[in-house]
Amino acid sequence: MTTPLARRECTIPLVEVAVTEFDLACLPETGAVFDRLLALRPAQVVVDLSGCRHIDAAAIGLLLDVHRRLTRADAVLTVRDPNPRIWRILQSARLDQVLPIVAGRTPGADRSDGSPAPGPDRAGSTPAGRAAVPVRGLPGAASAGGPR
Fold first, then answer.
1. Which runs of consecutive H residues, i.e. helices, occur in 73-135?
2. Closest CA to 133 of 4, 61, 45
3. What tens digit of pLDDT does each residue of 52-65 get?
4. Helix axes 57-72, 27-38, angle to 10 degrees
5. What's the rounded mean pLDDT across residues 79-103?
6. Which of 39-53, 80-94, 114-128 has the lowest mean pLDDT?
7. Would you list the domain boundaries of the chain?
8. What is the pLDDT of residue 12?
9. Distance between CA atoms of residues 41 and 1, nearest Å
């Protein structure tokens, strides 16, 4: 009798995505990006909202759905660096009571020497080894209404 080989599970430790538009109009594309990211089975997903100027209830619903899916996989969703207006919206929706919302750097992303890992600077660039993933124009992203 032959026993099947144990499948080796690979996990991506951290996936970061920068979101600049986060509302109902962008939801199909943004949702498709998150579906692709979650297929990588990351241990942590960080959504950088430092460049985001608007968020609505549909986007909050998507964040909650991603949080639920990651929690089922023993992974974590963190929202990073929302501006004060977005922060108030997230607090009003009580999202801060459901998942981590942090300012600045990624939690748990410290360097081996104990110093914090750099986060993206205010000019929008990212440090080496990190990539900002624009939702618009991402190859293979689904779009309900096509490009705007």
1. 84-92
2. 45
3. 999 999 999 999 99
4. 10
5. 95
6. 114-128
7. 14-102
8. 84
9. 32
